[in-house]
Design goal:
Its cofactor is FAD. By secondary structure, the protein is of the alpha+beta class. Helices cover 22% and strands 15% of the residues. The protein has 2 domains: 58 residues, FAD/NAD(P)-binding domain, CATH 3.50.50.60; 118 residues, FAD/NAD-linked reductase, C-terminal dimerisation domain (Enolase-like, domain 1, 2-Layer Sandwich). A 5-stranded antiparallel β-sheet has the order 1-2-5-4-3, sandwiched between helices. The longest helix has 16 residues.
């Protein structure tokens, strides 16, 4: 049983209507531009109340720092809401960074993408005899931009730790070629991303039969 506890945007009773700040009447979220500016030029919003943004504490902290630097420090750097690494800490963790495949198709078109994927199992699962091919790895690459990785997804042990490391590479413009040139650490779960060669479009079998 997965229990998802949500958060309410308590924005209806703080006087925003008095100064004309627009909110989404359905959920109380506040629409902003890419600089966290509301429809009222001198009012900004950050964090969980933003319309269409991630409800993650580190995101709110980063956005707040960057907003303060833009307003008072002469900076122009904006918060990157796309390449945010995050993890669902279920018994078998799921981690992701960048775009979901469906979102990538909407944004770039299916013909512009190449999706690589693989099933795998951790070596330590061999002794206790856990089910093989339970874990899954996928990257989404933009063929029109040097096969840059725009989506990273992993389902497996320690997915949070794996995703956090790859997130820095994605921020630096990670490409499929760079992944292929990276020597994997054996035996680790993360090394699967250095050996992926089966595309989703090929329809080939992605089950693993050896370590």
């Amino acid at each position: 049983v997965l229990i998802a506890v949500g958060r309410d945007a308590c924005t209806r009773n703080i006087g925003l209507d008095t100064i004309g700040v627009k909110i989404n009447e359905k959920n109380g979220k506040v629409p902003v531009n890419d600089e966290e500016q509301t429809n009222v030029p001198y009012v900004y919003a950050i964090g969980d109340i933003l319309e269409g943004k991630l409800e993650l504490t580190p995101v709110a902290i980063q956005a707040g720092k960057l907003l303060a630097q833009r307003l008072y420090g002469g900076s122009s750097k904006k918060c990157d809401y796309i390449n945010v690494p995050t993890t669902v800490f279920t018994p078998l963790e799921y981690g992701c960074c960048g775009l979901a495949e469906e979102r990538a198709i909407e944004e770039y078109g299916k013909q512009s993408l190449e999706v690589y994927h693989s099933l795998f199992w951790p070596l330590e699962w061999t002794v206790p005899g856990r089910d093989n091919n339970t874990c899954y790895a996928k990257i989404i690459c933009n063929k029109q931009d040097n096969n840059r990785v725009i989506g990273f997804h992993v389902l497996g042990p320690n997915a949070g730790e794996v995703t956090q490391g790859f997130a820095a590479a994605i921020k630096c413009g990670l490409t499929k070629e760079l992944l292929d040139e990276t020597i994997g650490i054996h035996p680790t779960c993360a090394e699967v991303f250095t050996t992926m060669d089966i595309t989703k479009s090929s329809g080939q079998d992605i089950t693993q039969r050896g370590c």
